[in-house]
Amino acid sequence: VTRLSHFDFVKSEDLDKIGLGKPAQRRLWDTVKKAKLNLKKNRFGRKVLYIFEKLFKIMSSDEFLILFF
Questions:
Q1: What is the CA 30 to chain-centroid distance, rounded?
Q2: DSSP for the chain?
Q3: What's the pLDDT tens digit per position in 10-66?
Q4: CB of 4 within 8 A of CB of 39?
Q5: Do 58 and 33 touch, CB atoms closer than 8 A?
Q6: By Cβ atoms counted within 10 A, which residue in 6, 15, 49, 53 is the most buried?
C-alpha cells in the first residue's frame, strides 16, 4: 500500500493477518479518512483557483474585481 487510494481495497481482515491490532486499525482508518477529506478539500480549492486564474486572464482586472467583489 503506497497510495491513499490503495486503502479502498484493504479490509480489516487483511490488517489482522499482518498482525495489526484493533486499536491500531481504528487509528489507521481514522487517519485515512482525514487524509482523504483533506485531499478532496485541496482538489476543490485548486479547481476554484484555476477557474479564477482563467477568468482573470480573459477579463481585465477591473471587470474581474467588479464581478467577484
A1: 14
A2: --SGGGGGG--HHHHHHTT--HHHHHHHHHHHHHHHHHHHHHHHHHHHHHHHHHHHHHS-HHHHHHHH-
A3: 999 999 999 999 999 999 999 999 998 888 777 877 777 777 777 667 666 556 556
A4: yes
A5: no
A6: 15
Grid cell locating 42: 485541496
Asked if residue 49 lies in contact with residue 42, where contact means CB atoms within 8 angstroms, the answer is no
- Predicted TM-score of the model (pTM): 0.60
Total domains present in the chain: 1
Q: What are phi and psi of 26, to 5 degrees?
A: -60, -45
Print the domain residue range for 38.
Answer: 4-68
Q: Which three cell numbers stand for residue 37?
A: 477529506
